[in-house]
Amino acid sequence: xxxxxxxxxxxxxxxxxxxxxxxxxCPYDGxxxxxSSSTRKLLLDVCGPEFYTGPVCCTHDQLQTLEDNFRIVDKxxxxxxxxxxxxxxxxxxxxxxxxxxxxxxxxxxxxTNSNQIAVKSVDFFVxxxxxxxxxxxxxDVKFDASNGYAMDxxxxxxxxxxxxxxxxxxxxxxxxPFQINFPSISTTPFSPLNPPPxxxxxxxxxxxxxxxxxxxICPVLPDLPDSxxxxxxxxxxxxxxxxxxAYSLAVVGFIVGFLIQNTIRKRRERRYERLAxxxxxxxxxRTLVGAASLDDHNPSLARGLIDPVxxxxxxxxxxxxxxxxxxxxxxxxxxxxxxLTCAVVFTIIGLINIGWTKFDxxxxxxxxWVAPNSETRVQKDFFDEHFGPFYRPQQIFITSVDQENxxxxxxxxxxxxxxxxxxxxxxLVSTPNNLTLDDVCFAPAxxxxxxxxxxxxxxxxxxxxxxxxxxxxxxIERCARSPVECLPDFGQPLAPHYVLGGTRDSKLNTYLDxxxxxxxxxxxxxxxxxxxxxxxxxxxxAEEWERTLRAFLEGVKERSPAEVGLxxxxxxxxxxxxxxxxxxxxxxxxxxxxxxAMFLYVGLTLGGGGSGSGSSARAAQNGSKxxxxxxxxAMSWIRNYTLTSHTLxxxxxxxxxxxSISTSVALFxxxxxxxxxxxxxxxxxxxxxxxxxxxxxxxxxxxxxxAIHGLYAGNNNSLxxxxxxxxxxxxxxxxxxxxxxxxxxxMMSPTRTTRSARHFPYPAPHNHQTSSLSSYSSAPSSAxxxxxxxPPPARIALTLSLIGPSILxxxxxxxxxxxxxxxxxxxxxxxxxxxAAAGVVINGLLQVCLLAGVGIGxxxxxxxxxxxxxxxxxxxxxxxxxxxxxxxRNTLDEQPISPDRSHFNNDHDPARVTGSGSSGWLARFFxxxxxxFLLKPAVKVVVMIVFGGIFVAGIIGMQGIELGxxxxxxxxxxxxxxxxxxxxDQYFDVGPPVYxxxxxxDVTQREVQQKLCGRFTTCEKMSLSNILEAERTRxxxxxxxxxxxxxxxxxxxxxxxxxxxxxxRSSSYLADPAASWIDTFFAWLDPEMDTxxxxxxxxxxxxxxxxxxxRLCRPCFEGREPAWNVTMEGFPEGEEFIQYAKxxxxxxxxxxxxxxxxEGFSGSVAFxxxxxxxxxxxxxxRTFHTPLRSQSEFIASLASARRIAESITESTGVEVFPxxxxxxxxxxxxxxxxxxxxxxxxxxxxxxxxxxxxxGSLRSGGIVTAVTGMVVVCxxxxxxxxxxxxxxxxxxxxxxxxxxxxxxxxxxxxxxxSAGSGSGYGASAGSVWGFGVADRAKSQKERDERMxxxxxxxxxxxxxGITLTKLIGMCVLGLTRSKLLEIYYFRxxxxxxxxGALHGLVLLPxxxxxxxxxxxxxxxxxxxxWMTSVIRSGYEYAPFLADDDSVSSE
Length: 1450
Description:
Layout: E1 10-16, E2 23-27, H1 37-47, H2 60-77, H3 81-96, H4 100-103, E3 104-111, E4 117-124, H5 128-139, E5 142-143, E6 148-149, H6 151-154, H7 161-169, E7 179-181, E8 232-233, E9 236-237, H8 238-277, H9 289-297, H10 299-306, H11 318-336, H12 338-352, H13 365-369, H14 375-387, E10 392-400, H15 411-427, H16 437-440, E11 453-454, H17 471-481, H18 496-499, E12 500-501, E13 516-523, H19 532-564, E14 566-571, H20 575-606, H21 613-621, H22 626-644, H23 647-670, H24 677-709, H25 725-734, H26 792-820, H27 827-864, H28 889-892, H29 918-934, H30 937-958, H31 976-987, E15 993-999, H32 1006-1012, H33 1024-1032, H34 1036-1040, H35 1056-1060, H36 1077-1084, E16 1094-1096, E17 1113-1115, H37 1134-1146, H38 1158-1161, E18 1165-1167, E19 1176-1184, H39 1191-1212, E20 1215-1219, H40 1223-1226, H41 1232-1255, H42 1258-1279, H43 1288-1314, H44 1322-1325, H45 1333-1373, H46 1379-1411, H47 1420-1432
Parallel strand pairs: 4-7
Antiparallel strand pairs: 1-2, 3-4, 5-6, 8-9, 10-13, 10-14, 11-13, 12-13, 15-19, 15-20, 16-17, 18-19
Helix pairs in contact: 1-2, 2-3, 3-5, 5-7, 8-30, 9-10, 9-45, 11-26, 11-27, 12-27, 20-23, 20-24, 20-45, 21-22, 23-24, 23-27, 24-26, 24-27, 24-45, 26-27, 26-41, 26-43, 27-43, 29-45, 30-42, 30-46, 33-39, 41-42, 41-43, 42-43, 42-46, 43-45, 43-46, 45-46
Subcellular location: Membrane
Protein name: Patched family-domain-containing protein
Organism: Lentinula detonsa
């Protein structure tokens, strides 16, 4: 069957629509014609050898027009021969094919301006094979200058061939002059054009493309290394499942073991009862078990337990003895010479505070959170030095109040946006320097050229003139589909996702439904990096204009909802720093409030006072005399309260806290360590929480000392009912005591073994020597109500010798824990650690030197002198006595309150000596109820099970901790930036830019060029450009399955898809093709691009300007030998490369030559300075990240970019590093997990060493360390529930948690180790496995006794002093409006306080009573004190008595 006859559908040109319009073809239904020789030659040049012979349907004029159009397109797609040749074939056949009539149908015509009939529209029938192949060959071709695709320019960003053809066929000024339709189904007699298309992966040179433009031929990248896989058992991770299973089995085993032990114990009890009834075993029903147990091993030691003052200890713990001696002498000296002590200490403090003259605050976030020598910081500095600091963006989001009925892209709203932008561009002038946007904006074409303002107004040329409510819609839709047709004044296409928010939402039917408009103005000093002085001048100018813009937009934001129904949210370059500064100012009130609350609490809690309840009751019973009794009772209460309160002492303690903070700041300011916001916010709370605690410990210990050595301790009859203080002092003087003060000083040393501690009361001129028992014989015992009385300096010295080592232990452990934070390279954390450690140490020194010796010492003297608190110059009258009638006889026998806070009776147990302050009932509660209950065996089991469960839950919860810090938390709740960040997360579909920087290589050498390029045949297969493209197109589903172990493991309850976002290697996070400056530069040299690189014909060393005509210029490489070709053989090298590169970087990109480098690449190449000015020292390849919504995605983008850069360096040997503005802030998160583990691990190790040394027991130190670690685990386990992420701030809090957790534990532990230390059986106490069953039982009871004594001694102080003081401060902090303070301080610290108190007062006593170490030996004075107190108070703790119940208690 013969072929159908050849015929045309159109031929030649018949004029144009307008005077300056493009020529239109004429309809022609006839046979093709043979071209002339010149036409044939032009046809072969334009369309190739396929038209070597035969007639055609085009003329010479049509071919010239086609050649001009191809010349424009080729500059965009020439890098991919398959796309270029398919494009040529498509339009050559459309215009010239002799069989044109078989696939082209003219559907309408029109009359031109020359009154000729021309084509108006045609149907072009194209087969699906060629259609799809043509589109696929061009789909992935890149256009480096725009960081985008050629399809954005030649196909309007089409996603399929139908959209591609639709764009090609649309009638428009920069496209086809007539409408071309592409029906999907051909009708008779037409048959579709369907030749085989060229494929980019074909091996022939006319088709083969490079990896950059043809992903199918890209090298296969090695699989990402598998990290540790996260296994699951159901919804639980394997770790969680294992922990829960192990804990469950341990609990079951523990309970079974307890039941078995209980059964054995009951059988032993019945056996014991039978032996007791048979009379074989003597029993002593009211003797101490500790003594009985010792009696079996060493009768002398048993006697020592009951009467320790009769026993001389052969062994001592030397460190403890030295510490007690030191603190005794320190307390005695400071209390004896308070004024001298104040003068010396305040002189030293004053000299240090001179450092305030060098006080400075660090506000630069880079210098705050990034170590100076960190890799990211060094890379940022390199980038800023060679390419200039990053742009300062000013961004506005505009949304509609009622998007459904009045969309943001309505014509009325668009008019308002144009007016707003016009005012910002032209009328917004700053003060005082009258700066406009043009003075500070980024102008890529140089000073005076248009500013980069990305806005929808750019699609309209900056004006709505000529558009109305009907025509503007088509303009928006067309520009959104083909941004290249609507270039703004600065010449770069504006993709819709740059100016329309939420356009990537699949639910949008049209761009007009976009929910937000985005306006972004970019400020920059210049294209090339300026010198430092110019940069500083620019930054000052930019900040001035930004403040003006911010003030203007604040007014717009307030007015626009009511005026036009629009919400305006914005951010300027100065916004973030200003708003964070506002937040810091609001925190001051919270800090002040905490200090006031703490002052009130300390003042009221330490205050004494009496109770008038007994007198009031008597007044009610006495009828008519009642008012007199009420009056006297009230006056008595007022006198007692004003005498025994400690308001001045509370104020003094807070002053010392403030002084320690001030000194710490001054000290480090003196040596050049700047203050940070973290320090300003945290240190006041930290030092307050740590410092105030010791006041309660000191006062609690002093009260116990006063119970034995106070003025009225142990003597109830000396007052004779109502003896006044003046009478008491007169009696003392009558006995000659005061006269002998200057002659003798009889002070008790804390290590002197004496039968009692009798000393003279007024030690002013004493010689600090320890008196013997006989030295006291010269003083009549009746001189004072208490024969064991010690004057205030001696009592302070004894108090400090007892509690001082404990304070030193806690202070040292806390300071070391904080100092370990200095190992973190982040300046904010390091500086905090230094300030915190110094603050804690200075506060501890001030407390043992000033608070104990001066503050408490003077307060004790004031009380004994009968002077009023707050106004010590007023001396109070003697105790007011009530009438001695029969009804009041019992009243006079009651216990009046003594000035030294002790009752006038012989019942001086630790629970009662605290007077009527708030700690009195607490001490009684501890002694009578809490401690006996806690030490019951069954309760111990429950406690260990519960806290074991808490520990397991904490470990499980730790797995869910996220990384990062949402910057919105650092802002005030009312800040306008909060809504801005919300809008950005919701609507902005552009990720941050990322630059792959190449340095320390000579790019003028061919070998290096081939390692960087990607568009030429001799470029290395694994070159930088090829790797970037391959990474960008890496299979994301496969990549998302690769999780990195550098981030946290799988949380307990989280969707695995969400977890994949936490992977540091989940994908490339690269959204756009990389802009390869070297490929674009070499393409610009292509002589076929005859309008790009041109030189003067007469002098090739002079480049041509764009306006120079072809008569004067020629292509740079025209006639060059070797010629320019894709093998790179004729490409420039050495100095020639530098010369052409400089020409290219100054050439303008436009319609004639879109490959010019000035707009797109002028900042991509950095030349040296001075003598190195002709050397390229660095260059970068620019691309963009995918939109990053969460903190984990920001972290992952950095990790992925680093991995890609490392792979490029490994493959090419060229040093490459990635840079993006956010990297410097997220660098910490790549190592923060390991840093946290290191810091907390070293902290626990230091705690173990310090506590073991000070407690004299590795076992007890290990227990304290373990409990401290459990507190930290508990805090970390709650972080996910509380919404706390792991970052520098929470790391600081964890370091603090470890230090403060030690404080909750060490006082109880040391009290446990000190209790019973003179009994002599401590050496065997801890050897639970060393004896038989009976020995273990006795050892257990010994530990119970010690824990009872220790916990009743310091437990109330730990609860009222350490716990409640911190709790009150945190409650005030809970009132803050700052989300940052609420989440990262209030929540975390509240958890820490509760967890620390529970572990320190519940778990630690239980564990120590079960497995605590041996008691400290040879501390006879401590033994004398607690045993005297125990014996005098009728010590009757049932489980410790050898009655019928004691044996059953183990």
